[in-house]
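Bug report (template v2)

What were you trying to do?
Predict the complex of my protein with FHN.

What happened?
Run completed; filing so the output is reviewed.

Input:
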Amino acid sequence: MFTRNPIPATFALTLAFWLTPAHAAGGLAPSADPTAEALARFDQIKFGMFIHWGLYAIPAGEWKGKYYRGIGEWIMFRAKIPVHEYEQLASQFNPVKFNADEWAQLAQDAGMRYMVITSKHHDGFAMFASKASRYNIVDATPYGKDPMKELAAACARRNIAFGFYYSQDQDWHEPHARGNNWDFPQERKPEIYLRGKVFPQVRELLTNYGPLSLIWFDTPGLLSEQQVTELRQLVKSLQPSCLINSRIGHNKGDYFQTSDNAIPIQVYSKMKWEVPATLNDTWGYKKNDNNWKDPADLIGKLADIVSKGGNYLLNVGPTAEGIIPEPSQRILRIIGKWLAVNGESIYGTSPSPFHFPDITWRCTVKPGRLYIHILNWPGRKLELNGLESEVKRAYFLANRKVVNFRRKGGALVLDLPARPVDPYDTVVVLEIADAAPRVAEAYRHDRLPGRLDLYAWTARLRGEEIRYDRATLSATNFVKAETERNELWWYPYGSLNGEYEVELTYACEDKAAGSPFRIAVQRSGEPKLQEVRGQITGTGGRFLTRKLDGVIRVTPADAYIIFSLPEDDRSASVRLRKITLIRRSS
Ligand code: FHN
């Protein structure tokens, strides 16, 4: 497998981690199914650091004095910056404060066990030494060094699995790639771009940086099935155990990516998956984006994702000088402290055997054990329905203190203190008599209840003004915007099928009354299929639940359910806690 690539000594640790057990024990014996083994290891590690770093960190959201809404690394596209102007950024890019060990150490402190960094984003600039294009950090910047070499080595020293992001289809620098119509309106010949840049660069990435745990392609777009197949073959011929994400296109990936910041509403068990997510509202550094997520939110989301079967790839956007913004560092270290105590309930676990009726708790599993993650404190008792296995012992993971419990009908009732043991996620360990938990059919993860709450907390919040308020479990500030509307999107990923009546639980001032809202069901890339429209009625600031007129129909193929207040700013202060779907019997 690696005979074509001499492996530097610094990669020995990553090798030990990333190679198959057969490799590790007895040298480099080829494995029967390197992809399956790599996937099994990927499933264990759960939490990774995504890094979006490139020339876009210089404008940082602003071009020629004008602020651009949306994600920072898209500024070339949004401002339609001509290639010859954007290229000038390279001559200013000098990240003298970059320190690979500090970045890798931060990942380790955060409890992140893998790292994926942008080797080339849509702007086409290679952040690594490339012979295939001189538009790269070594040849085109005053910095003149390859930071990826150092980062790969720093991760290897810490046993952090390492991978590259590579934008294979969009490349705004190249006339024959997709995306830049302002410089290159003529017809494209993708083969020229693919053969001239993508294939040689992907070869460089898989040859010069030791064993990669994965390569992360993005926005597959227009590449043909044949082209994607060839790209996959190239990767696997160089490193058979390098995983490929689903955004390579044409279902040729080894594992599945959700949409950005999109968490399936329930357990998803069809294949291994990962959620790429932001710490604020951008991937690449943007100087004015201070909408940092609360550590409680992020720790809850880590537990939520892992309990549903996924990995969490959480992003940082370093500055042009090479510094990971201080708020990102602070937040990540808080997560790391929580994991240092509670990591047993995350790494190496299996998903929940239960479906989730609300957002009070989540569940992860190891043989003979359930980990109940209490995310929203329920008061002095928690009722867990459907567990048939005998519980032998229950205790808090953080301090090993015993938790008393009793049976009440089909429910297990846990006695809790008035306040959480951990401010973010209190984990209760249930030791059970069975290796794998037995759960009554009505509560299993693949059987959803007749009434299903879709909380704002489980939605992707779109738009940069919308905010989540943890105290009231609601989303608010639905400011009207031309682009990137402020909306809530939920992702069923096949878990819903049928007709549903809808309830809305919300609060607002009376002056918001009359504002129109809509709940729509959509498929990816298709116009809206279905919607229920209504008008906000005043609630005098109190939360209330209102049944809507009409039903929505959701099929397993539908990609998302959207709540929006599209018309005006009068409704911006509406607080939406949840929508409830009530299944109609067929
Ligand atoms: O367009 C990109 C975006 O800039 C960012 O890289 C994200 C990360 O998942 N991927 C694309 C959009 O899905």
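What did the reviewer find?
The radius of gyration is 24 Å. The CA atoms of residues 1 and 237 lie 8 Å apart.
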